[in-house]
Amino acid sequence: MTAYATPADLESRYGAAELLALADRDGDGVVDAGVVEAALDAACTLAEGYLRGRYALPVLVPLPDLLAAVCDLARALLYTLDAPQIVTDRDAAARRWLAAVASGAVQLDLPPAAAPAAGGLVELINGADSVFGRGRW
């Protein structure tokens, strides 16, 4: 998985104190790196789900809007209970932006996804006549 945001990005956007409060699951006073990485991976996977089919993946150029969306998604995923309204609002806004990208309403300066090869899937689906049907039992 290509990381569109890093733990350092999360810390710079939301602060070390919030990241510690959200990702110190064992209570030792240290951010659990695995927890943060899991949230970032899930957020990146979600973002790529919106981008897939429209743009070539992985995205190899830095895009500030994509970084912000992935950070907002990961932050919301780190909250296990009762996220503040600002967090849920930013999560919803990130999802709306990604949906707009997926629909083509928002254009990114990225190469388009490769077109499917001619005759690929369609030829695989075409087969012999049905074995079962009217009069063929």
Q: Low-confidence parts lasting 5 or more residues at pLDDT below 50?
A: none
Number of helices: 6
Q: Could you tell me the mean pLDDT?
A: 88
Count of DSSP strands: 0
Largest sheet: none
Features:
6 helices; about 140 residues
Summarize the helices and strands and which ones pair or pack.
Blueprint: H1 7-14, H2 16-23, H3 33-51, H4 64-78, H5 85-103, H6 120-125
Structure overview:
The protein is mainly α. Helix content is 55%, strand content 0%. It is built from six helices and no strands. The protein has helices at 7-14, 16-23, 33-51, 64-78, 85-103, 120-125. The protein starts with 6 loop residues before the first helix and ends in a 12-residue tail after the last helix. The mean pLDDT is 88.
In short:
This protein has 137 residues and is mainly α.
